[in-house]
Amino acid sequence: MPAVSKGDGMRGLAVFISDIRNFNFRNKLSADNDSLWKVFSRCLSTLGSRTVAKGKSKEAEIKRINKELANIRSKFKGDKALDGYSKKKYVCKLLFIFLLGHDIDFGHMEAVNLLSSNRYTEKQIGYLFISVLVNSNSELIRLINNAIKNDLASRNPTFMGLALHCIANVGSREMAEAFAGEIPKILVAGDTMDSVKQSAALCLLRLYRTSPDLVPMGDWTSRVVHLLNDQHLGVVTAATSLITTLAQKNPEEFKTSVSLAVSRLSRIVTSASTDLQDYTYYFVPAPWLSVKLLRLLQCYPPPEDPAVRGRLTECLETVLNKAQEPPKSKKVQHSNAKNAVLFEAISLIIHHDSEPNLLVRACNQLGQFLQHRETNLRYLALESMCTLASSEFSHEAVKTHIETVINALKTERDVSVRQRAVDLLYAMCDRSNAQQIVAEMLSYLETADYSIREEIVLKVAILAEKYAVDYTWYVDTILNLIRIAGDYVSEEVWYRVIQIVINRDDVQGYAAKTVFEALQAPACHENLVKVGGYILGEFGNLIAGDPRSSPLIQFNLLHSKFHLCSVPTRALLLSTYIKFVNLFPEVKATIQDVLRSDSQLRNADVELQQRAVEYLRLSTVASTDILATVLEEMPPFPERESSILAKLKKKKGPNTVTDLEEAKRERSADVNGGPEPAPASAASTPSPSADLLGLGATPPAPAGPPPSSGGLLVDVFSDSPSAVAPLAPGSEDNFARFVCKNNGVLFENQLLQIGLKSEFRQNLGRMFIFYGNKTSTQFLSFTPTLICSDDLQTNLSLQTKPVDPTVDGGAQVQQVVNIECVSDFTEAPVLNIQFRYGGTFQNVSVKLPITLNKFFQPTEMASQDFFQRWKQLSSPQQEVQNIFKAKHPMDTEITKAKIIGFGSALLEDVDPNPANFVGAGIIHTRTTQIGCLLRLEPNLQAQMYRLTLRTSKEAVSRRLCALLSEQF
Amino acid sequence: MIKFFLMVNKQGQTRLSKYYEHVEINKRTLLETEVIKSCLSRSNEQCSFIEFKDFKLIYRQYAALFIVVGVNDTENEMAIYEFIHNFVEVLDEYFSRVSELDIMFNLDKVHIILDEMVLNGCIVETNRARILAPLLILDKMSE
C-alpha cells in the first residue's frame, strides 16, 4: 500500500483542516504511533492546553470557518479564472465545512465545472460534491446530466463508474428521463466491464425506485436475471439487489430468478471456502451475497420444481449444519459472518413455513443463541423466534424455551432485548401457558422501563382476555394491572374490562366483590375508581347482602374517593349514584343530599352541574317503575374487535400484531362465549351513563366479503388478473347522481367510504378519489384499480399513480386520476378496490362517473341562431328523442339546475313555449368538437318528458340522451 | 436498504455522512445529534441494534469513533454489523492503521471507498482488492 500523503498534496486544505482540528480533541481509531499526530500535538501545545473550554473552541471554529468561507467565496467570484487544482481544493474545503454541519449555499457551479475536467481527481471531487450536496430537485441537474452523458459515452470505465454513481446517488426524475433508456443497455451489453455493470445495476435500481414508469420492462429483463449466473461475484451482488426489488413488484416476470438464485447459493454454500478467493470473509464464503440471495428467495413461495426445492433444502440444511460445526476461526468476524447467513436462512425457512423439520431445527438453533454470551445474538434470536412462534409447525418447539425467555426478561441489561423478550412471550402465549406468562409479565411490569410499560399493559390485557378460561382470573389480572401500572392503563383497557363483565353474568358478582375490596386501599388509582364506580353501579346489588358491603358502605367508599378525582371520573361517579338510587332505595335520601349540595348543583364544571341537576330531578319526580326502566342494567355490548387490540396494532404497526393474530386465530376458539348481539333497546334505553358507551366506537365487523361469485362484469373483463367483484349494490344509482355533479360520496359501506372531487376543462379532466377507512383497523394491501374495456381504453385515457397499500384506521388516502377524452365514448370505467381488513379479503367494484357530458363546454346563443342550427342538424341520424315518465317531482328550478349541471348552457327565451328547456354546448374530445343542442319538454299533466338531442354525431346524441333521461 | 452511513466521534462531530435517501440539510444535523446521543448512552452490555424512529440503527465503536448505519427492516442486522467491520478493515489496509485524522484529511478517498462498497443503499462490493482498485489508479495518476 502506498504511503498516503495526508491531504493529498493540497497544502491549503491540510492547514485549514488542522486549524479546525486544533479546536477539538484528539481521537484515534487504532493507530498509536501515527507520526502525524506528533505534528498536531505540537500545534495543540502551542494553543496552550487541551482543556480549551468547549464553548470557546466552538466559537473559534465558527470564526475560522466563516473566514474560510469568505475566502473561498471571493476566490470563486474573483476575476482570475481558477485552475482545476484550486477549484478542487476549494470544493474539498466546502465539503469538509458542510460535514461540520454548516450550510453551504455556493460552490455548486464550480463543482459542476469540475465534472468536465479530464483529470480523474478533479472530476471525482466534482461528482463527490454533487452527490453529497445536490438534492434531486436542484436546478443544476440539466448541467450535471450533460456531464454524465459525456462520461457515459467516454467508454472510459472509471469515468463511467463515476457518472453511474452520481445517477445512483442523486437519481432525480430528470435524470431518469435522460438515462432510463441507456442504463439497461450498459447493464446487459456483452462488452461492459464488470465494475461498470455493478454500478449500472444499482443505478437502474435507483431509477426504478424513483420513477418506475420510466423504466419499462423489456428484453433486458431476462438478461438481467441471468446476471445471477455471472462469473463475477461483485456483479452478482449488485444484480441480486436489483432483481430483488424488481421481483417484489413484478413477481411473474422474474420467476426464473428462483432457480438461478438457488443454484448460485448452493455453489457458494457448498464450496470449499478457498474457491471464492477474495469474496471469502474470515473463512465464510461470500456472506453478504448469500444473505442477499436468501432475501431474494423470500420474495417467492417455496419453489415448485422438486429438484430446485430439494437443492434449496439441502442448502438450508448445510447452513444449519455449519452452525453446529466447530468454528474454522476463533475470530469474532468469522462467527458474525456465519451467523448473518444463518439468520437469513432461518428467515427464509420461516417465510416458506412448509418444512417442519427445518422449522424445528431453526428453533433449536435459536434456542442455543438465547443463552449465548453475545447480546447481539440474544437479541436477534428473540426477534426471529417471535416470527417462528406463529408457525403451527414450530409453535410447540418455541414454547419449550419459555423459561429461558422469562429469565431474559428478568436478567437482561438491555431494554431493547427485554422488549424483544416481551414480544416473544406474547407470541408464544396460548391457553396452556397463559397464566404463567401473564404472571411473569405482570411482575416484570413493576420494574419495567417507562418507555415500554403501556405496551406491556396492552399485551397483558389482551392475553388475559383471550386465554381466560376462568373470568375471575381475568378480573384479578386487570385489577392488578391497574394497581401496578395505573398510569399506563389506557381507556381502552378499562372500557374493555367493563364490556366483558357486563357481557358475562357469571363473573359479575365476583367483579363487584373484587373491586369493592380493591377500593378499600387508602390510595388507589383513579382508573380503579372508574372501574369500581361503574361495576358497583351496575352490580353493587350482588354484594349488598353482605353487611360488610351494605349499600351505604359501598356509597361511602366511592364517595370518599370523589373529591380526589378528575372531572370525567366524578361525572361517572354521579351516574353510579343515580344507579344506586334505583338499586338501593334505602340510600336515596343520602344521595339526594349529596346531589343537592352546592358543590354539585353549583359546580363550575358545566357537565357535573348538569348531571347533578338532572339526576336530582330524576330521583325526585320519577316513579319507581320509571326509575327502574331508565336506570336498567346495561344491555350486553355488541361483540366487536377488542379496542385494545386495535390500539396495540396502531402502536406497533400492522405487521407485528396482525400476523400473530391471524396465525393464532385458528388455535384460539372464541373465548368470549359470544353473548347475544346488542338488543335494539341499547339505543332506546336512555341510560344516564350512556356516554360511557362511546368506546372508541369500532363499527361491528362486516358480515364478510361481498359475494364475489360470477358477476357479469367478471365475464366481461375476464382477462383482468384477479377476479373483480360485481358492482356494489346501489352503484348504478350513485353513478346516475354524478352525471350532473362532480363532487360527493360515490360509495359507502361499513368499512370504506369513497368520495369524489373532479374538475373538467375541455377534453381534459382530473378526478380526486378519496378513500376513507371508517374502521379503527388498518387496511392492508389496499389496491384500487381502474378497469376500462378495450373499447373504452381507446376513447378515454386515464392515468393514475398507485396509492399507499396501507390505510391506517380512520385515515383517508387520495388518488388523482388524470383524464383525457380522446373520442366520444359510452361505457364508464370501473373502479375495483381490493384490500385486506382484519383477516378477510375485501373486493369492491363501483362504476366511476366519468361520462361524456363532463367534456361539455356551454355555448350561449340567441334564439335565432339556435333554430338555425337546430335545422341544420335535422337528418334522422343526428336526432335522438326519448319520451319518458318523470321519476322525480317536476320542479322547474331543479330541472334548470340539472341541465346546467349536465354541462350545457341553459338558453332562456329561446323556445316559444316558456315551459320548455333548451340547452346548447360543445363536447370536446382530443380529435374533434361536437356541437350539441337539446330540448326538454315537460308535460305536467301526464307527468312525462320529451327529450330531444341533436348533435353532429349519432353516437353522441344517443349517449347524451340516455344520460340525461335518467336525471328527471 | 441502507438509509445512511455515518462516522461520528464521541464529541458528536460528524466525520463522514452519506445519505441514500434525501434528508433536508438542516434536518441532518439534528438527526446526527440524536443518533450519536442514542449510541453514546449505551453500554457494552447492550446490543448493537437500536430501534430508532421508523428504522434501525446498527453501530460499532472503534476507539472514539462510532460508525452508525441506519437501515430499514429489509436488511439483515448481523450482515450490516459485520459489513461495518469489513469497511474499517478496508480503511485500515489503505491507510495502514487508520485513525480519525486519516478520515478527516482524506475525506474524498474515504468517500471513494464507501461508494465502491455501498451504492444506492445496497452493498455492492465486499472484495477488498476490488474496492481499492480505483483508489490505487488514482494514486498512481497523482504520483
Automatic annotation (TrEMBL), chain A:
Keywords: Cell membrane, Coated pit, Endocytosis, Membrane, Protein transport, Transport
Biased composition (Pro residues): 699-708
Composition bias type Low complexity, residue spans: 679-698
Clathrin adaptor alpha/beta/gamma-adaptin appendage Ig-like subdomain domain: residues covered: 736-849
Oligomeric form and interacting partners: Adaptor protein complex 2 (AP-2) is a heterotetramer composed of two large adaptins (alpha-type subunit AP2A1 or AP2A2 and beta-type subunit AP2B1), a medium adaptin (mu-type subunit AP2M1) and a small adaptin (sigma-type subunit AP2S1).
Protein name: AP-2 complex subunit alpha
Record has NADP as a keyword: no
Organism of this sequence: Mustela putorius furo (European domestic ferret)
Superkingdom of the organism of origin: Eukaryota
Gene3D superfamilies noted in UniProt: 2.60.40.1230, Leucine-rich Repeat Variant, TATA-Binding Protein
Residues covered by region (Disordered): 645-714
UniProtKB/TrEMBL annotation, chain B:
Biological-process GO terms, alphabetical: intracellular protein transport
Keyword Protein biosynthesis: no
Domain AP complex mu/sigma subunit: 1-141
Subcellular location: Endomembrane system
Keywords: Membrane, Protein transport, Transport
Superkingdom in the source lineage: Eukaryota
The keyword Protein transport is annotated on this UniProt entry: yes
Membrane topology category: Peripheral membrane protein
Record note on quaternary structure: Adaptor protein complex 4 (AP-4) is a heterotetramer composed of two large adaptins (epsilon-type subunit AP4E1 and beta-type subunit AP4B1), a medium adaptin (mu-type subunit AP4M1) and a small adaptin (sigma-type AP4S1).
Function (record text): Component of the adaptor protein complex 4 (AP-4). Adaptor protein complexes are vesicle coat components involved both in vesicle formation and cargo selection. They control the vesicular transport of proteins in different trafficking pathways. AP-4 forms a non clathrin-associated coat on vesicles departing the trans-Golgi network (TGN) and may be involved in the targeting of proteins from the trans-Golgi network (TGN) to the endosomal-lysosomal system.
Name by which UniProt lists this protein: AP complex subunit sigma
The organism of origin for this protein: Mustela putorius furo
